[in-house]
């Protein structure tokens, strides 16, 4: 990993974190701690990334992707760890809505369905519960539900 890759990834993720409503700019904003708490990761991992000291490990990346509502695939590609060729998109089932040759994201589906902006985050969280977990599908196991 080059310094340029780390800087590019950190710049991208900073903007994403801000767009998701985490105040990472003011010392008392608490955004880093809130993000770490919601993702279930150490605050130091967030700090090291934002200070361009180190890339998060795979599990931290996965947890951040979930909280930031971005596919892990995008995080891994943006981080420079893998390429689009390493992680090809699955072909969409016949009749599945697509955007630019790929399946719609939940955010895009919400917009297409006319979900009001103030309710889209809730729509995405609820709808995501009904989608298969790619890791569980590959292993034949499902992720535990919060009610388990």
Enumerate the strands of the largest sheet in spatial order, edge to edge or round the barrel. 1-2
How many extended strands? Answer: 2
How helix-rich are the residues, as a percent range?
A: 40-55%
Low-confidence stretches: 135-148
Distance between the termini: 39 Å
Mean pLDDT equals 82
Q: What string gives the helices and strands in order? A: HHHHHEEHHH
Q: What is the makeup of the main sheet?
A: 2 strands, antiparallel
Given the structure, what is the number of helices?
Answer: 8
In percent terms, what proportion of residues is strand?
Answer: under 5%
Query: Radius of gyration from the CA trace?
Result: 16 Å
The structural class is mainly alpha
| Shape type | globular
Detailed description of the structure:
This protein is mainly α. It is built from eight helices and two strands, in the order αααααββααα. The chain has helices at residues 3-19, 31-39, 43-50, 58-68, 72-79, 106-113, 120-128, 134-139; strands spanning 98-99, 102-103. The chain has a two-stranded antiparallel sheet. The radius of gyration is 16 Å and the shape is globular. The chain starts with a helix and ends in a 9-residue tail after the last helix. 14% of the residues are buried.
